Amino acid sequence: MTPLRPAVFLDRDGVLNETAAPHAYVRTIDELRLLPGIGEAAGALTRAGYVLLVVSNQRGVARGLVDSSVLAAIEERIQAALEPSGAHIAGFYYCTHDLDAGCDCRKPAPGLVLQAASEHGIDLAASALVGDDETDVQAGRAAGVLTVRVRPASDTSDADLIAADLPAAAAALLAQPRRAARSISSA
Ligand SMILES: [Mg+2]
Ligand SMILES: [Zn+2]
Fold it and tell me: How far apart are CA 19 and CA 23, in angstroms?
């Protein structure tokens, strides 16, 4: 059996690209604004052995405000931004359901993280999630990964680590002892 690999799960809006206004969506590719330093940060995480997986709530699809072709175009832009650093998103996972759909994948539920982990052979105990909302933190915690909150609106976050942005989050993660390694060495 292939050994399980560690991953960093990345929220999309607010981590890789600027968020639209509250309760708004990135609806066209022209509205996409990638955040500075994401390529280098993703490259550093890749060199450290992390698989990169995006987990994103996109309720605008259910509401008919976001077309799935736009999601695909955004994926291409993100991959192009990461490529010079040797990084690549291994999979994009979206919850495209509306609030009343009763799905188990809309964050704060952990469904997207668990699905991505199972499809990519991920060791959750050695993994982390980076998000800009407490629902990301809750989803990561429910999935059993280390949680990193970026762009906190205040200093009240339940995340394990707080960072200004993805580059700072990557630096903080890389400075952490690996949890799996730590549990082995303390056994
Ligand atoms: Mg977000
Ligand atoms: Zn869902």
Answer: 10
Near ion ligand 2, which residues have CB within 5 Å? 95, 97, 103, 105-106
Residue 179 has pLDDT above 60, yes or no: yes
103 CA → ligand 2 middle, Å: 5
At 180 the pLDDT is 53
Pairing outcome for strands 51-57 and 128-131: unpaired
Q: What tens digit of pLDDT does each residue of 47-81 get?
A: 999 999 999 999 999 999 999 999 999 999 999 99
| Amino acid at the residue 122 | I
Q: Indicate the pTM of the whole model.
A: 0.93
The residue with greater pLDDT, 179 or 25, is 25
Q: Which residues, by Cβ under 5 Å, contact ligand 1, an ion? A: 11, 13-14, 132
Q: How far apart are the first and last CA of the chain?
A: 23
